[in-house]
Amino acid sequence: MRFSLMIALGIVMCAATAFAQQRLTVDVSKANIRSGPGTNYRVLWKVEKNHPVQIIEKKKSWYHFRDFEGDKGWISKDLLAKYPSVIVIKNDCNVRSGPGLDKDIAFTVEKGVPFQVVGKKKDWINIRHADNDEGWIHKKLVW
Asked: Which residue range forms the structural domain that includes residue 75?
C-alpha cells in the first residue's frame, strides 16, 4: 500500500513539473498581462505577438507565467497558442540571411523582440517576426 502511494505521488509530481515547464506563445497582436486571473485585475504590461511564456499554473481559463526576464503575470488562455517562439535577450543582435556567421546581416534587433520559430539548423534558429521579417539567429541570443 505504501509503495503504491509513493508511485501515485511521483506520477502527480511529474505531471505538475511537466505542466510547469510548458511554453506557450502569445498569438494576438497585443496582449494585456494582468496582476491576477481575470479582466478585473490591473494591467501590468502589454506584450506583442510571438512573445514566449513559461507556464507556472492554471486557474480556470487563465495562465500564470514567467517570462524571459523572470517577471510573472497572468494571461487569458484564449490569447495563447502552442507553437515555438523565442525572444531576444541581448541588445544589437544580428539576424542573418542564413545559418552562420559567414552569412550577410539581414537586420539587427534589440532585447525583448519576439519571433516565431520556423526552423532550426544546428545552433541556429530560423525566425519570423509578426511583420514577416525573417532570418537566422544564434541560439545563445534568445530565450
From this structure: 2-83
